[in-house]
Amino acid sequence: MSETISTGSPVQRQKPSTPFYRDLAFQVLVGVALGVLVGALAPSVGHHVQFLGDIFIHLIQMVVGLIIFCTVTHGITSVRDLGKVGRIAVKSLVYFEVVTTIALVIGLVVVNVLRPGAGMHIDPSSLHADAAGTAPAKSEGFDDFLVSLVPTSAVQSFAQGDILQVLVFSVLFACGLASLGERAQPVLDIVGTVQQALFWIIRKVMRIAPAAAFGAIAFTVSRYGLGTLLPLARLVGVFYLIVVLFFVLVLWPVARYAGVSLLKLLRYFRAELVLVLGTSSSESVFPQLTAKLRKLGVDEPVVGLVLPTAYSFNHDGTCLYFAAVSVFLAQATGTDLSWQAQLGLLLVLLLTSKGGAGVSGSAIAVLALTLSATHTIPVSSIALVLGVHSILSAAFVFTNIAGNCVATLVVGKWENAVDRVRLRTELDAGYRAA
């Protein structure tokens, strides 16, 4: 979904709103409903449409490594003068790590307590979309884990879809590129162009999400019965509870520490938050967020550094999603995840969550490679949640945007780079278009 932003012309006719039947979320819900009907009334047909979900997953896995490389490289290299802004960058990254870790812990704790996937008894061998996902767990020591982070060949890590090695290479490459200063600009432009092309692919792939949801739900219902839908409803309820807890336990006190009311802040950015609820894409509101944070009195260097970096490294809502859905899929497939294994999952998620992009569908892609990195939870089990992904993504993208705005204000406070009078005045009055 796109939005025309006024450029100040005297008269500018707004584009008519998109008919509801062309909205992706509506189409996915229709796909889910049709999948339920076909799976329940014609199970023989439902057994043979799983390939639709498989194709969808494979298309996303095809580009996710490059998306992560471009996102991380562009985010780090855009900082440019690391000597001048290194202090802000370090403070930002420390904040991002602490808050996303708390988000992962909240998600893991709640989903373990409420266990929305318990009792589904999904046979992993029937989910054949990715044979690698059903490989037995490998017993590795911490030293083996550290060694496995470093690729022997960057090309091989991309070819094999090893998300951790791709991340390590991306960070090293970005730091090397940033050290070149202005000479890095041509390469940075190319990376940005490739990134936009990959975003286009993801957006096009998301158009077949309704068919993928239809195939996944039809197969699930035909094989396991209508009883499998109840755990999906429980997952949605549990995830929205996790999001509410994160706002109450984390963002609310952090916003107070930054000297702002979280409710007033959400009201100030309400147009952007409503937009991402419909699009499930945070990239569509980046320019507006930048302008509004500057209008709130945050210095331009802080906004220019913290917000773009947050888009790559501060995915609070996505971390909640990764933690909740990963454990849900383990519960649904009967995969044994001890607390030790979940701590390992948390460490993996701390790395892979940094590769999430602001494009609808990228969370599924990163989740797929995260599960592959664990060598325990079947990657193909992601098909189970395709039907409710759009409902979940609306909540976690909303959380990402709110978290990034709060993060920018916190770092601005640390740098004494916020006009407190202007901030208070703007929040009390609410946003007014110029």
TrEMBL record:
TM ranges: 24-43, 55-72, 93-114, 163-180, 208-226, 232-255, 345-371
Cited SUPFAM superfamilies: Proton glutamate symport protein (SSF118215)
Keywords from the named record: Cell membrane, Membrane, Symport, Transmembrane, Transmembrane helix, Transport
Pfam family, one: SDF
Gene Ontology CC entries for this record: plasma membrane
Compartments where located: Cell membrane
Molecular function in Gene Ontology: fumarate transmembrane transporter activity; malate:proton symporter activity; succinate transmembrane transporter activity
Keyword Signal: no
GO BP, sorted A to Z: L-aspartate transmembrane transport
Lipid bilayer topology: Multi-pass membrane protein
InterPro entries cross-referenced by the UniProt entry: Na-dicarboxylate_symporter, Na:dicarbo_symporter_sf
UniProt name for this protein: C4-dicarboxylate transporter DctA
Taxonomic source organism: Streptomyces sulfonofaciens
